[in-house]
Amino acid sequence: MKDTSMKIIIAPDSFKGSLTAREAAEAMQEGILRALPDAQCVLVPMADGGEGTVQSLVDATGGQFITARVTNPLGIKVDARYGILGDGTTAVIEMAAASGIQFVTEETRNPLITTTYGTGELIKDALDHGVQHIIVGLGGSATNDAGAGMAQALGVRLLDAADNDLPFGGVALSKLARIDVAQMDPRLADVEITLASDVTNPLVGEHGASAVFGPQKGATPGMILMLDEALSHFADVVKVCRNRDIAQIPGAGAAGGLGAGFLAFTDAHMQAGVKIVTKATGLQEKARDCDYCFTGEGGIDSQTRFGKTPMGVVQAVKDVSESARVIALAGQVADDASQLYDVGFDAIFSIVPRTMTVPEAIETAYENLANTAENIARLLA
After folding, report:
1. How far apart are CA 203 and CA 324, in angstroms?
2. How far apart are the C-alpha atoms of 332 and 349, rounded to whole Å?
3. What PANTHER family does its record include (predicted)?
């Protein structure tokens, strides 16, 4: 007998500060099944390449978390976590786990000296686990070293005119004279590296890593000038020693120029974060012949169309199931969110049932999300 139960894909991002993507999906499922107990719910926790991507992909694929001892941006040893997906061959790393801005304070942040060395150590640990593909989320960095520290952790020697190894930090790159890759980890040549980033900034110039992102990391106008000159010099030396022109590649400026570091020393390629997550979770395969899709995140507005998770979900689902209806739920729905109806969203709901404080909304997010999903499902029934 043919199964006539309704097939519903549940593919939210995290509700920042309250629910992980997995928890949000479970809340939606709980509410839906109250009204539609025979519904076939398929949970696909999502992300857009930023914070929460490791959690979402591990959850969605039945993977595992790995903890490694690494060097934080200030050179202090800390524990950092990354994931290996359910296929056992794909690692997913958020650079912020090792090199993020959470490791510095107002007093200690200094983009002249912070390093991405710990991100390189995470990559090395993933290689030690035999992975064949590494996804790296670029964002939330405390660094502005063009990925120099990452490269050093993987065996690249950055040398000054006296053949001394450069110290950590972006400003040290002004002294770079020569690059020696003889000891670079040979396994990098056999591993696919995908960089998840929606940033299109180049490495240098007025729209580059130092000028645009330096101030939020504590860079003064003087520091910005020093860092931009140092990164420009780094790009010049890379062009001579590596025959790669990285200065103006869109996205090279992501995560304090970490994108440029990957492009200089590996065959990494960049891709929009939500597209990477869509592929890794198998969302499209799971969404074939679905009737409805529930998605969402903490806030939805007109900007959601530009690379945010719900937009990626809409595109992925409707590519394989044109008749499917996509319903978005959010803690906060902006007045201009109605513009999203023109790009594929079928309905958008706020989960907040009444006037409440932000702390109260965060505390009751699971209950509110489940109740809203139930009310929607009762209409569908």
Report:
1. 41
2. 9
3. GLYCERATE KINASE (PTHR21599)
